[in-house]
Each structure stands twice: as structure tokens, then as C-alpha cells.
Write a structure and sequence with these properties.
The protein is an alpha/beta fold. Helix content is 24%, strand content 32%. The chain is built from six helices and 16 strands. Strands 2-1-3-4-16-15-14-11 form an eight-stranded mixed β-sheet. A four-stranded mixed β-sheet has the order 6-5-7-13, with helices on one face. A hairpin with a 2-residue loop joins strand 8 and strand 9 (119-120). The protein is globular. Its main location: cytoplasm. It holds the Pfam family GATase. One of its GO terms (molecular function) is lyase activity. Heterodimer of HisH and HisF.
Length: 212
């Protein structure tokens, strides 16, 4: 039976992610902060919620920045929400925070005066939103283009390399909803809260060989 390590650095909906993975039969799911267990896992999930400064402080304290660089190269790796933002080069949250830098680009604030067609939009962006599939990726299998996923975020990813943007969202402005590069895949939305589509994405991740 394959193992899926859910990285525990004290920030994130770890057990809801783990339960969703178990629900789709992903294998033996381990919520862990043990670096060796993570290294030995067949697949790795990197969730996150909360302030990026706090997240990156814990990630660096535990040495997980280097660990993420290591384990995301040779096996399927999934970043979720702030886990996705932490993979970028830098976030402007909290006055500016350097992140892990696996994907080129920045994390930007939606803004206090976000609006569209003369209508004010609330920040954080919270609720269901369409995701347009920019490319055909194995993790989109059996998920229709422009299907909806559940988001909770005040900051969005502005990716530098458009070829890595495999899913796009729009909320007052366009943003990267999903990124991919080799065995790495990352999403701004919460698949564990996205009902059928989210479970399908996790099932696809559990079956993915990490090639793209």
C-alpha cells in the first residue's frame, strides 16, 4: 500500500485533508512532522492556512523549506492554499515575506477596494468559484472545464511563468488557481472542501505517476 505524507508544520486543515485522502482510497495517509517519514512517502501533500509570515517561520524552523525542495522533485507533490503560496518566491503579506521559491512569481493582496462592474467585492474571497483549465493535466481527469471549487483567501498568486499556470480563477482580477511543474501541482482552492470535484482531484492525485 502506498503512503501519503501530509506535512504537519502546525498550520493547516491537516485532518480534513487527511480524511478526504482516506475517503478516496489514497492509501496509508500519515499526518507527520517527521522528516524521514516524509522522505520515505510515495506522495506528499503540503497544506496551509493562516498568515504566511507565521507559516514560513515554522517551515524554516523545521527545515521544511529544504525538505519540500527535496521531496517535490521525484514523487507526486500537492500544495494546497497557503501551501501553494509558500511555494512562490515572495508574498507581499505582512510587509513582504520571502517564500520557498519553487515557482517564479509573487503573492499579491486583492486590495481593500476590490470591485467589478461597479460592485464592491468582499475580501477575503470566500466561496465557490469557477476554475478554467488552461491545459490538460492528469489531475483534471473527469473534472469539467470551469467547474467550481471552494476558495478562502485574501491573497492571490501572480505567476511569472504562464506555462506553469494550469488553472485560472477570477475574482475582481485574474489569478492562478492551479500551478504545475513536473511532479509538483499546487492549488489555491481547498479540494477537501470542494465536494465531488475536490475529491476527484484528490483521487487523481492518488493515482498520478508524477509525470507531465
Amino acid at each position: 500500500m502506498q503512503t501519503v505524507a501530509v506535512i504537519d508544520y502546525g498550520m493547516g486543515n491537516l485532518h480534513s485533508v487527511a480524511k478526504a485522502l482516506e475517503h478516496v482510497g489514497a492509501g496509508r495517509v500519515l499526518v507527520t512532522s517527521d522528516a524521514q517519514v516524509i522522505r520515505e512517502a510515495d506522495r506528499v501533500v503540503f497544506p496551509g492556512v493562516g498568515a504566511i509570515r507565521d507559516c514560513m517561520a515554522e517551515i524554516r524552523r523545521l527545515g521544511f523549506d529544504e525538505l519540500v525542495r527535496e521531496v517535490s522533485v521525484d514523487r507526486p507533490f500537492l500544495g494546497i492554499c497557503v501551501g501553494m503560496q509558500a511555494l512562490m518566491e515572495r508574498s507581499e503579506e505582512n510587509g513582504g515575506v520571502d517564500c520557498i521559491g519553487l515557482f517564479p512569481g509573487q503573492v499579491r493582496y486583492f486590495g481593500k477596494d476590490l470591485e467589478e462592474d461597479g460592485e464592491s467585492l468582499k475580501v477575503p474571497h470566500m466561496g465557490w468559484n469557477e476554475v478554467k483549465q488552461a491545459v490538460d493535466h492528469p489531475l483534471w481527469h473527469s473534472i469539467a472545464d470551469s467547474d467550481r471549487f471552494y476558495f478562502v483567501h485574501s491573497f492571490y498568486v501572480e505567476a511569472t511563468n504562464p506555462r506553469q499556470v494550469v488553472g485560472r480563477g477570477h475574482y475582481g482580477r485574474d489569478f492562478a488557481a492551479a500551478l504545475a511543474d513536473g511532479s509538483r501541482f499546487a492549488v489555491q482552492f481547498h479540494p477537501e472542501k470542494s465536494h465531488t470535484n475536490g475529491l476527484q482531484l484528490l483521487q487523481n492525485f492518488a493515482a498520478w505517476d508524477g509525470r507531465w
